[in-house]
Amino acid sequence: MTLSPPGALAALGRPVLAALAAVGRVVLYAALALGHLLRPPFYTREFLHSVMQIGWNSLPVVGMTAIFTGGALALQIYAGGSRFNAEAVVPQIVAIGMARELGPVLGGLMVAARVASSIAAEIGTMKVTEQIDALVTLSTNPMKYLVVPRLLAATLTVPALVATGDAIGIMGGWLVGITRLDFNSATYLKNTVEFLEFWDIGSGLVKGAVFGFLVALMGCYHGMNSARGAQGVGAATKAAVVAASVLILGFNYVLTELFFSA
Asked: How many independent structural domains does the chain possess?
């Protein structure tokens, strides 16, 4: 059956309107969470627990990702630079690549895979088992108790993870450089330190804070809006990871354009 022109436009418009409505709901949810951020009460114990879960427990996976990425980046830059007799730029490019882009983006994606799914599953299960309703019955605001501590913890800890990942990734490039590519250790480190500027590192930390906020926001939002039952919690978990990953990549471009456009 062929669609008439008005029917075709309606078929195209429905998913667009649905997508815009979803974006609007997320923006309103984020504004509501930010509004609660500076208003008491503050649940310090929940915040510290979230810091451990999001920050400390994510350190191994971020560190492993960073060291292998730095090593692979050094090999690729050396292979490409050798075509133009520019092998000496390996330390500089590894440092700027990790600090500006790969450190924050890969760190954010690893945290999204681990933390957004965990938050969505935890809050979604609480909704299914009516624990959130119990919080309301006890005069505890779920937004203050469940969402705000996780948002604040992720926003503060992901930049620390990014800084650690940058250092480990640069160390991975250094290890490959001195063991596989015949670089002098002192020269490699000297070129790395002299080439990096403050804003190369600072921009990555700002990205890390934004990515951490997005990861926690998507986990909380999809967890709070999960459907009933095990399938609903599973769908919310999947949606949280996908949304957080896509937002990280999209905001990475926006922030890079903002920070480094000519």
From this structure: 1
Rounded-to-integer distance, Cα 213 and Cα 54, Å: 12
pLDDT computed for residue 83 by the predictor: 82
Task: Kindly state whether residue 87 falls inside one of the protein's structural domains.
Answer: yes
Note whether 205 and 231 are within 8 A (CB): no
In which domain, by residue range, is 159 found? 43-260
Share of the chain above pLDDT 90, in %: 60
H/E stretch holding 189:
helix 185-195
pLDDT, mean over the chain: 90
pTM summary value:
0.90
In single-letter form, the type of residue at position 251 comes to F
Residue in the block written with tokens 């092998």: 87
Phi, psi (degrees; rounded to nearest 5) at 256: -65, -40
Position 232 scores a pLDDT of 87
Residues 6+ apart with CB under 8 A from 175: 67, 71
Q: Is residue 34 part of a domain?
A: no
